[in-house]
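Fig. S4 source data, part A: sequence.
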Amino acid sequence: MQKYFLSILLFFVLFDNIKAQDSTYFDEYSFLYFNKDTSQKLSLNLYEHNFFKNNEYFGDFVKGYTLIGFNFQPELTYRPFNKWETSVIWNVIKYHGYDNFSEYKPYFRIRFNPNNKFNVSLGYLDANVSHQLIEPIYNPERYITNNVENGLQVKYNSPKYYGDLWLNWEKFILWNDPWQERLAVGHISKVRFFNFNNFNGYITGQFLICHRGGQIDDSDGQVQTLENGALGFEFHHNTINNNWKFVMKNLFVQYHAIDETADLPYLDGFGIYNKLLMNYKDFGFVCGHWYGNMFMNFRGDPLFTCQAIYKENNKNERAVLFNELYYSKHFNKIFSLKIGVNTFYNLYNGDLEYFYMFSMIFNPQFNFLSNK
């Protein structure tokens, strides 16, 4: 795993002759992100996300529930030099109607930016949906419920290549701790092979490896290493006036239990993922099809797995049509909102599950010292 990490890092460095950043990519989570001014020596960024998401699920794979609350995340960043920055981030998550805070912790990050395409972060990571993993591998709802990742991250972004490699250390152990260590290693690469008249084609590959184990703990838990991966194509198109945008994804997805754990219903599986996203101005529409065969995921959306809540309801095969209709808009560079409805239709038994959501974000930046 360490050799793979170093080889990807070397690959990023060899791509250093590529020029500017590719701005054609978009998705249904773009409302979460704002352009930051990185020219200031000292800045305070306030990120406040109020969310409401009601999951009306009735099938065998996940029960229905509602998420309503807020995430407040002030970030103070100091840039002593052009290529270095250090940040302290305080993450607060509070669900309405729940007395205690679900998260109330500080985090730190040091980032090295040798140029405008390449950066290395240690500590708090650019995480969640910003990894651009597909839903069967990574559940986008985690930007509400598990919005913090810590560890090491290497990113490269250019018109011809995009790469994100990260290690998320989820649970740390000391000698004789009664729990196992937990970590996840992920990577996504996109190599552009076609570009004509605002139309771009990419070969894309991604994986996420989840591990629990350790040698110094006092737990009797079984070592487990599980992997999801995908390989396929993406096609992006922006019209000249940017009113219409299209993204199409077609990927072969697989699951493999690296440690053949006895209590898992499947040790290997696969899936076919097809998705089309169309955006006109501030309105978006998603339609897609998923087929899974003995497929399991461990950070992905449970609506794409073959493992049911109760073992007797496991399905060796699943076929799902999924759709989304949404309105998303940024206001004055510091506000954004999104309203959306998603449906999931099981082609084998006719079950229809859905959720609807509403999010509002306030994200101003205050600058105190200029680098000029």
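Fig. S4 source data, part B ends here. The CA atoms of residues 71 and 144 lie 8 Å apart.
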